[in-house]
Amino acid sequence: MMVPNDNGRDRIKTFDHYDSVLNAFSGGDVYIEDHDIAVALEDAIDIIQIAEYLGCVPVVSKPVDVALVKQGQVLFRSISAHPWSWVSMAHRIQSEMIYKEAIIHLAGSWNGVPEEHKERLDPWAKDVALKHHAKLNEKRKMLEFTLASVYPGNMSAPCSELPIRREEYAKDILVWMALSFFRHWFAQRIIDKKGALAPDGGYNLYKTLSKAGEAYMDKAIINQFHVKFPMTKKAMNVLENHLLEIKECLKSVVEKSEILNSKCLLDVGRHEVGYLTCVEVDKSDIPWFNGYFSGGFTAADAAKEIYGIMDLPIGQPRP
């Protein structure tokens, strides 16, 4: 179809994108406006659709990848919002960085991902996400097992003479009471599905434990304990001090597990996501490095959900 360019009439943008794709065969630039993620995404999707139609996606994938990654934290926030869509887009343009980022968010938030989105995932992406979700579950299990069975300090050996007399253990009765009180609280959290089975995969529980101090089991909770097990004012203060020491010990257990360490490119300090992002994705998880290429889920399909992100004002918090 011929479109005359008379009287200052604008060119149809799709024609410019066809020119970019065809010029790419001879080493020409693929132009994408990247001053705004909404515009960059619109250009990128149009170019990828043309490349899919012409069967030459690898020719344009790199410049499209670069244009999107230049958006920095705005892009990474978008990926965290809809990782199931971005993982498909990353597969189409063969973007290793975006694919890894999307898998990290998929695996970390798997408990809370709607079933309809899980079902629409590419088989390879779903298998990789499930693999890393299982690894996270093992990490959670080991941490919770340790937290439920740790004995801080020298509780298990209050003296060097064996066998240890009951009088030696009796000296630490308030320490044992404080530890029992913590385990009571921790068991209630696990039974209430605040740990690995929670929609956030235990993120809030582990983060709370990592803060120690008054972040949990505060004065109001401790007073409930004293009502049930009344003791002198001095004994109450001693027990509370022991509990604070135990919390510090448990804080170090969480830190050593590295379960709260983030491996994603999103600045989780500024844009907290509310689930674990300690997933490590390597090249063996990237489909096109293993001879697997996406099937019928096209860039247009991924765009339907990704465009939903653009309804939010750029730079504003997600609801």
Summarize the structure.
This protein has helices at residues 13-24, 37-54, 57-69, 73-81, 83-93, 96-108, 115-120, 123-149, 166-170, 173-191, 203-211, 219-228, 233-257, 299-309. By secondary structure, it is mainly alpha-helical.
Walk me through what this model shows.
This protein is 59% helix and 0% strand. The chain has 319 residues and is mostly helical. The protein folds into two domains: 13-124 and 292-309, no CATH class; 132-257, no CATH class.
Give the tags.
319 residues; mainly alpha; 2 domains; 59% helix; disordered C terminus
Layout: helices, strands, pairs:
Blueprint: H1 13-24, H2 37-54, H3 57-69, H4 73-81, H5 83-93, H6 96-108, H7 115-120, H8 123-149, H9 166-170, H10 173-191, H11 203-211, H12 219-228, H13 233-257, H14 299-309
